[in-house]
Amino acid sequence: MTPEEVRARASGPTAGLATGFAQANLIAVPADWAYDVLLFTQRNPKPCPVLDVTDAGSPRTVLAPGADLRTDLPRYRVWRDGALVEEPTDATPFWRDDLVAFLIGCSFTFEGDLARAGVPLRHVEQGRNVPMFVTNRECRPAGRVHGPMVVSLRWIPEDLVDTAARVSGRMPAVHGSPVHVGDPAALGVADPAAPDFGDPVAAEPGDVPVFWACGVTPQAALMASRPPFAITHAPGHMFVTDVPDSEYRVG
Amino acid sequence: MTPEEVRARASGPTAGLATGFAQANLIAVPADWAYDVLLFTQRNPKPCPVLDVTDAGSPRTVLAPGADLRTDLPRYRVWRDGALVEEPTDATPFWRDDLVAFLIGCSFTFEGDLARAGVPLRHVEQGRNVPMFVTNRECRPAGRVHGPMVVSLRWIPEDLVDTAARVSGRMPAVHGSPVHVGDPAALGVADPAAPDFGDPVAAEPGDVPVFWACGVTPQAALMASRPPFAITHAPGHMFVTDVPDSEYRVG
After folding, report:
1. What CATH number labels A108-213?
2. Mutation test of the interface with chain A: which of B163, B170, B250, choosing the one with the most A Cβ atoms within 10 A?
3. CB nearest B250 (choices: A39, A43, A251)
4. Among A112, A126, A240, B207, which residue's CB has the most CB atoms within a 10 Å radius?
């Protein structure tokens, strides 16, 4: 499927769809919260690499000029005072004229390069959403916005961990290199089989847990910081852009 | 000299000082302009790669915890309504409690890697500041902030241009790869011997002009956008950070 087709038709998680095109996390907040959110992303570039910020009220983004951010994600989350109140498939009834939307890089973008480098993707093999965890690492706060870093977990054969780190490290705009390899407890992750978002994914013998900073981090910040209103993507249900993955590859 | 010594003592351009430590452009604006400036930098990452943003009123930055942004640059520019009104060596008398300071990556940071890769640096050889030019390329605007891209010029032997592009491309946080190679007129630069900022630098036989996006771009945006007040570094008179250049090398 093309990015346009995924935006028009997908109803579930977008991992593995429109291969070769970057996917993005969405977080839209009222304009009077936009500076704090933008500064939070600047101060936490590993979990929050910004690909685009819209003008207030506009559902348009340079990442896909024909797209409408209110309708073109498969599933949304609507937040009031930091609490999840709805999970609609169409955000139009909830959109406001003062919303500023942030599109944040997604680690799905480097999965094509990982696969081409021979790194197996267990969640794709198992037909699951990537597992995500709230960690014990606090992000650097910005004004009213604060919260813990969220990570995604990929089980990777021990002899391919260096390759995975190098390949993903070439894509700093989509989380870059891992933030942690090995013992999940070091990040405060008690049980890697019980993710906070996404699906549990089984390890193969010889696999090591590898953790990347995750674009769901702004959602954890919403829950901690409690702005009066926000709209985000539902975890794993990303905005598919028209931008080739390769645009975010450095060097 | 160490970064701390340069911050305490330097009185002229900082190119070649505290080798191995990243230098930064400074632009400080009143808090009610900070969102537009931050969004402008996000939308124009090649000329405006942000390394840090301070809390309003604070002269402290994580890039050099012991430094004071009001005193530790060799020379400043003070702007009122888009016009340059002073060039003090101490910004303390001009600092305001509502100022938000942006520290923006500087191409000096990749010059160490260029030199190690065998690329000659003509401006350093000739003891001059790098030449900078206002181009005919408009940056993507953000709210009230708009303006042309400013570039720095380095004359580079033709057979080393690819090397220079590859080496600098590994440092996207300090402008990354060149934005243009060859004909200056394509950028609207009429005379490469007459820079808008910095010093003219002579080419050697076989040199090609190579242009990088430049952190003076926000100053051109100030001149075009006319915020009521701003403080910046004087071109070439950078803030020397405690961060090793290598921190900004990717892959």
Report:
1. 3.30.2040.10
2. B250
3. A251
4. A240
